[in-house]
Design brief:
- This protein is α/β, with parallel strands linked by helices and about 150 residues long.
- It has a single domain, classed as Dehydroquinase, class II (Rossmann fold, 3-Layer(aba) Sandwich).
- Strands 2-1-3-4-5 form a 5-stranded parallel β-sheet, with helices on both faces.
- Helix 4 links the parallel strand 3 and strand 4.
- The two termini are about 15 Å apart.
- The mean pLDDT is about 95.
- The structure holds 1,3,4-trihydroxy-5-OXO-cyclohexanecarboxylic acid.
- The site of 1,3,4-trihydroxy-5-OXO-cyclohexanecarboxylic acid has 10 residues, from loops.
- 1,3,4-trihydroxy-5-OXO-cyclohexanecarboxylic acid binds next to loops.
């Protein structure tokens, strides 16, 4: 059972990008953390980052029928993209939205998410641990569905 972990624009810069906001972990560190957490919970992770919106949309389309759920940090597209929200709605898979920072304590343009209404839930402000918690939640959710 595979969870698709999607990361939006500029998250490839983690580690050096605004460390006061996003911490010093790199995206590779977060990928490793996701793989370890998934394995401990009997899941597999397919980890992907892109700076191209169309590429993210195509990965979402491909997810249909091939993965059990989508963990997405849409980054700046959270606040701008109806297209990503529509793609997530189209594939009809459980979605968890994750942000490293607490977007509610930041600029007001980060307070609105186009993605949140099509997500099971949203985790923000817990840094990379948010990714772990989302994967653990998928493990419970999917386990329960299989009973
Ligand atoms: C982010 C929050 C977004 O507002 C921002 O555009 C990002 C990262 C986060 O993980 O905290 O790029 O999604």
């Amino acid at each position: 059972t595979t969870i698709l972990v999607l990361n939006g624009p500029n998250l490839n810069m983690l580690g050096t990008r605004e460390p006061a906001t996003y911490g010093s972990e790199t995206l590779d560190d977060i990928a490793r953390l996701c793989h370890v957490t998934a394995e401990a919970n009997g899941l597999e992770v397919d980890f992907f980052q892109t700076n191209h919106e169309g590429e993210l949309i195509e990965r979402i389309h491909q997810a249909r029928g091939t993965v059990a759920g989508i963990l997405i940090n849409p980054a700046a597209w959270t606040h701008t993209s109806v297209a990503i929200r529509d793609a997530l709605a189209a594939v009809d898979l459980p979605v968890i939205e994750v942000h490293l920072s607490n977007v509610h304590k930041r600029e007001s343009f980060r307070h609105h998410s186009y993605v949140a209404p099509v997500a099971v839930g949203v985790i923000c402000g817990l840094g990379s641990n948010g990714y772990c918690l989302a994967i653990e939640h998928f493990a419970r959710l999917l386990g329960a569905n299989h009973e």
